[in-house]
Amino acid sequence: MGVCFLFAPWASDRQKRKDLTWPKRRKKTENLPVLHPDAAGIDVGASELFIAVPADRDPEPVRSYPTFTRDLHELADWLQSCGIRTVAMESTSVYWIPVYQILEARGIEVFLVNANYLKNVPGRKSDVSD
């Protein structure tokens, strides 16, 4: 058996290779209406929560809190002081339940979001991007 090597004619010339690359697609962006202007997002984990509020509500709009009960009440106090009335959070395992109960008892409307639906978002999924 012999070995076959493939050679691309542009491999030796970088400029030619740049010219032969696929053109970049431009993303179509739409201006979506703001449905809940007083909303925040929560990424729920087993030992830590990441919360983001609109940038004009607090000098530190992204915070993290531990998952102890007293910290969840502190989180609810902060959300209320920022004027948050709606929260969207991932329904990760059973860790979302205490957060949901405390926020609901405070009168904050909570929406659960399935994290598996985020796999269609371009790029790698991480806690920061969430």
Please give a handful of descriptors for the protein shown.
globular, alpha/beta, five-stranded mixed beta sheet, 130 residues, 3 helices, 22% helix
Please, could you describe this protein's structure?
The protein is 22% helix and 20% strand. Strands 3-2-1-4-5 form a 5-stranded mixed β-sheet, covered by helices on one side. With 130 residues, the protein is of the alpha/beta class. The radius of gyration is 23 Å and the shape is globular. It has helices spanning 14-19, 69-81, 96-105; strands at residues 39-44, 48-52, 62-66, 86-90, 109-113. Helix 3 (96-105) links the parallel strand 4 (86-90) and strand 5 (109-113). It has 3 helices and 5 strands; from the N terminus they run αβββαβαβ. The model is unreliable at 4-8 (pLDDT under 50).
Strand elements, count: 5
Q: Sum up the overall morphology in one term.
A: globular
Distance between the termini: 52 Å
Strand order of the largest sheet: 3-2-1-4-5
Return the string of H and E elements: HEEEHEHE
Low-confidence stretches: 4-8
Class by helix and strand content? alpha/beta
Instruction: Indicate the radius of gyration in whole angstroms.
Output: 23 Å
Report the average pLDDT across residues.
79
Strand content: 15-25%
Our count of helices gives 3
Largest sheet: 5 strands, mixed
What share of the residues lie within helices? 10-25%
